[in-house]
Task: structure prediction
Amino acid sequence: MLGTTLLDTAGAWDELDAAQIVAGDSFSHDLIAEAVLSGTPEPVRKVLHRAAARTLAGHGAPPTRIARHWQEGGDVRQAAPWLLAAARLAGTQGRPTEAADFYAQAAHAFETTGQGEQAQVAWEEHAQLAHPEQPPVGGGPFHNAECAFCYPGTTMTVQGQWQLTVLGEPRLVAPDGRQVRCEGRTLAMLTYLALEGPTPRSRLAGLLWPDNTEAVSRNNLVQLLRRFAQSCRAELVHAQEPLALAPTVQVDLEPLLALPQSDQADGDVLDGTLLQGVSLDIPEFEEWLGAERERLDALRVRRLAQAAQHCENQGEWAAATRLIQRLLQLDPLSEDAWRRLMRLHYLSGDPAAALAAYGQCAEVLRADLQVEPLPETQALAADIARGGVLPAAMPPRPLVPVSVLRPPVLVGREDAWRRMEEAWAQGQLIFVSGEPGMGKTRLIADFAASKGRVLALEGRPGDDFAPFTATARNIRRILRANPGLELGSTVREVLSPLVPELGEAHAPRPQLDGRLLEAVGHVFGLGLRDVDVLTVDDMQYCDLATIEAGFLLFGSAFPLGGSSGIPHVICAHRSGEMTPDGEAFIRRQVAEGKAVLIELQALDEGFVRRLVDELAVPDLAALSPRLAQFTGGNPQFLLETVRHLIEKDGLRSVTGRLPLPPKVAEVLTRRLQGLSTGALQAARAAAVLQSDYTFDLVAEVLGAPLLTAADAWAELEAAHIMHGDRFSHDLVYEAVAAGMPAAVGRLLHRSAARVLSGHGVPAGRVARHWLSGGDPARAAPLLLEAAGEAAATGRLREADDLYSLAVSALTTTGDQEGVRQVQMLRATLNMTPAVLQGEPPLPPSV
Result:
């Protein structure tokens, strides 16, 4: 079992016997066994249990013992069939109570590991065991009034108020105080209904069984509802359409959700993580659960802040202090909360505690973010140390209307929409370009949504450093949109250097080869079968290899949306920022009538007036002429200006010149200054990661707990810095990157390099972070690896660029021998004049 030799094991056993730990073939005392178990680290204990399960299975041990070891080892999937075998064995041996328990455990194990068919078999055999002929109440050789899964009508209905606890450790308690088993998909269903309210069956079935067809998922839901009703002997879920919790179910988080939205909310804010310790192998549900946990934590923070403000307004310093201390447990990186705590201690007559709070704040920020407190926090500490009068607490930021965050209609783009309709009818490629902030993203998204099913892809800053970076992200997007897509082993193998999760777990990372383009085309062909329109936003960021692969795929299909099998394609890019190859391709396609290029212009004063009217913000209409002049008709700048006025200055007080800096970047910088330190550092980490960032990676780069990172991310989304898994606008990204201190940027880049190295990210992207982090020695070997891969896939120009970077890195480190070897490798590239001059490959039809 331990993988040791017999001689080694015998020697170890002799030592244990001499130390009177064991006596013969057992422990010398049960207290010693308990001490050994309690002193064994949990990860080690789990490994040993799994090894024991494998060993016992090879020696014919009873299935109950094997199942127990798999369960203790944390492998529910392996435990499930052994639990089913134990149930069948107990049934044949005339032990119906034990059999029923094993059947229930097996069914739950199958359900939690996504094995729906096996779970249904277990439930059916369980029902046959308990009721072989569906006897009346009290009849039948196996009937048990306490059976957890009796048929409806076989026992009396339980009436009264049920208690569902979902904060902390979940549980379901019957009116008589009996705790009813509630786990797996049953618990997921109840929690979803408690938070989302009445829900269509199709949505709930798709959430709980995302990998099945709708018919199978709905049937699974029917069976789940039936078994749950039998278990409870009560209807806790109204089974009509839509599904809803019965009024007899009281959920513990209702008081949290029902707290008033005013500053007079009391401090009775419930603690506890939503479904603490629960983890289901259902990605869609896990994503929903993560989002709800973030929402509830953000709600707690807001409620505690409101209650603390109310107490402070009433002069109740002690109560306000307790509330802020609870808030800091949820958001320990909130400098605003630390400043409030410092104020409250000082106002309570305890300046020493106030300065101690400042010390704690500084210690937390240095440990978690490697930064010092903000200047206003330091200034407050200085005022407290001098014993001066403190400034009043900052009032809450005014609420920005939803219409300003996303205007209800597009204004001034009617002509562009008409031209897009004409191009769509002719099956042409549609290219939309314009200066930053002109509304390209909104236009192509709204137009595409009006045409049917959309697959939305995009370029991101940093894509252009290594070939096929955007391709890798787009493949993942296609696979997420089509979870049942069968790629085949060869395609998975070829793509695994770009998308490591497609390869074998723990296998060495293979190298890219010449089969890559064919494999990429295969995935896109499968993924686009049920798509009406493909959008590619921010195409100027895409790497050259991805752009040329797209040219080959779409440039040869005309008209789009027809028999070619390629859907309509709409692309957006910044004016003047495409590569020369990209610009040449667009011009050629337009000249041949296969594409249309639509340039978005600034809004004139009339359109600005219409946009301002659509925003429906009081007192804003009078500012329309000045807004048009001040923003130059740039829609994004106009919206940022209005948002800034609402949050900072108010509209009624605006007279004369608008009190704003002359560039949109400065407006965005002011918005960033209003973030907490944790949220600002999360935004900086996302900007550093660029094309690689996800929420999990941001948390890893910062070295922050997931809950802390979740709070920061929720703040970024609330401030409209982030939207989903990307920045809300590329101008926002640029403002974050431009405002990042150089030392912080280098630190984050080095952290990003270490994190990405552990996630199988291609060498070129990791090398970029080492270079930006000021460590060329670590970047050089990765640049050589990336150059070799680029050459193997025919990307000779990119290979040459990467070799050149490697030469620079090695020169910086003084490795002249390394420079000489790289120059020799660079000389082997077959750099023809056409490649050197940057001429792009032509699609087959050109």
About this structure: The mean pLDDT is 77.
